[in-house]
């Protein structure tokens, strides 16, 4: 088999066989196929697309290219959740304790990543002393004893995807539906869960800007998961404005804690209940979504989800007192409002711009090496559809540097569109693929 022939076949619109795809993935991961040939194949796939069979073969070959987590020592059905990401996405912080409090084990591998804020691990480090450096044995024991554990990505999961994603990033071949679906699902399959619930975001702060694309991606990923024998479902949710109100690491932790106390913002609570229901049904703890929603609401109402978060934080070395007293979380030295210049209704918010404000304040990483300030960020006081009067705060900005604050405030105010007419309400959950 020759890489040249594989590239030409795809370039001419042919369908690659499983053997050809495996040959490519194996050779590229081993460094035997050079970047220029892999890039040519990615570009051919970008233009010619892949069939369902090809997409599945690529996913499996990448999933099997490195370590695979063995979660069989954990009792019960293991359900994983994946979000395609967005601004203010703190879902795992509230959802994991809610689901675990209902009896479904949560065994997660999480990352740090680049972006507007840190990843789940960075956010959790807002609890002083918290660590994700667990041995596999400790990780499995914690899941069995407490119901949740989160480990840093130590295992070499799907290295083929890591290498290919980096190549796609610099060759303008990221935004192909089949390549995105296979990339995400290869990592999820290697992470070992029995069932997968996907949260696919759509809107100005999401990877998929249109609902049509978000549904197409969700369908493609659900098909892959099911073909791989995993119970897979997807929720398509809005990311045309930030999720909830808090954007920034410790601020998001505080909002997740408030949500577990029953005081969460409506959109965030709805997302946790919708995703959580899918997880409880997949995990066999509930027969249907309506029953699952009641269970999830009751673990918020009786405080057991909050206690579950505290037990999890403590088991991983963190200061669990902050779960009950958020004043103990990292605090910014400057807190100032950004006020509206006019009366009217918030008609839209440029979601990705709000993310950039958090980055400017120091809440995210621009390069893998950059440090991150856990205390900074924004808390929105007005969201789309809200009425505002001139001089009223649209948000509070949390900063440790006056220059960064001024820069972020200017950008923030340009992200809001305020007009005289109340905008039409749009559903937050766009659909669920069961
Ligand atoms: N996220 C991934 O993990 N892979 C992609 O290709 C795009 C987004």
What does this structure look like?
This protein has 434 residues and is α/β, with parallel strands linked by helices. It is built from 17 helices and 13 strands. It has a 4-stranded mixed beta sheet with strand order 1-4-5-13, sandwiched between helices. It has a 4-stranded antiparallel beta sheet with strand order 6-9-11-7, sandwiched between helices. It has a 3-stranded antiparallel beta sheet with strand order 10-8-12. Strand 4, helix 10 and strand 5 form a beta-alpha-beta unit. Helix 5 packs across helix 12, helix 5 crosses helix 14 and helix 9 packs across helix 10. The longest helix is centred in the middle third of the chain and has 17 residues. It is globular, with a radius of gyration of 22 Å. It starts with a helix and ends with a strand. The model has no long low-confidence stretch (mean pLDDT 95).
């Amino acid at each position: 088999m020759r890489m040249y022939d594989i590239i030409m076949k795809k370039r001419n619109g042919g369908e690659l066989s499983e053997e050809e795809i495996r040959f490519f993935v194996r050779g590229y991961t081993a460094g035997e196929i050079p970047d220029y040939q892999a890039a040519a194949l990615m570009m051919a796939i970008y233009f010619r697309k892949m069939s369902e069979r090809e997409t599945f073969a690529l996913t499996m070959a990448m999933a099997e290219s490195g370590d695979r987590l063995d979660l069989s020592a954990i009792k019960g059905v293991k359900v994983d959740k994946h979000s395609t990401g967005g601004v203010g996405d703190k879902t795992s912080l509230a959802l994991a304790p809610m689901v675990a409090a209902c009896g479904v084990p949560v065994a997660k591998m999480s990352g740090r990543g680049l972006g507007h804020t840190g990843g789940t691990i960075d956010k959790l480090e807002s609890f002083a002393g918290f660590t994700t450096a667990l041995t596999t044995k400790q990780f499995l024991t914690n899941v069995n004893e407490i119901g949740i554990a989160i480990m840093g990505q130590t295992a070499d999961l799907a290295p083929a995807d890591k290498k290919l994603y980096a190549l796609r990033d610099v060759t303008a071949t990221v935004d192909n539906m089949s390549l995105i679906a296979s990339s995400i699902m290869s990592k999820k399959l290697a992470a070992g869960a029995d069932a997968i619930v996907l949260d696919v975001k759509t809107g100005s702060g999401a990877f998929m800007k249109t609902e049509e694309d978000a549904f197409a991606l969700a369908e493609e990923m659900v098909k892959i998961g099911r073909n791989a024998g995993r119970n897979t479902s997807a929720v398509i949710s809005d990311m045309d404005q930030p999720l909830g109100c808090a954007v920034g690491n410790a601020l998001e932790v505080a909002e997740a804690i408030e949500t577990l106390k029953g005081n969460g913002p409506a959109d965030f609570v709805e997302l946790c209940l919708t995703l959580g229901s899918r997880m409880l049904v997949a995990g066999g703890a509930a027969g249907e979504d309506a029953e699952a929603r009641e269970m999830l609401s009751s673990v918020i109402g009786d405080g057991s989800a909050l206690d579950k978060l505290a037990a999890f934080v403590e088991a991983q070395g963190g200061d669990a007192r902050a779960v009950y007293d958020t004043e103990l979380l990292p605090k910014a030295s400057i807190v100032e409002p950004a006020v509206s210049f006019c009366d009217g209704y918030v008609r839209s918010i440029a979601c990705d711009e709000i993310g950039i404000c958090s980055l400017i304040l120091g809440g995210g990483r621009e390069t893998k090496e950059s440090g991150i300030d856990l205390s900074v960020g924004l808390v929105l006081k007005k969201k789309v559809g809200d009425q505002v009067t001139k001089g009223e705060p649209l948000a509070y900005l949390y900063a440790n540097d006056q220059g960064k604050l001024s820069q972020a405030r200017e950008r923030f105010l340009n992200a809001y569109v305020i007009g005289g007419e109340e905008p039409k309400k749009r559903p937050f959950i766009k659909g669920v693929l069961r």
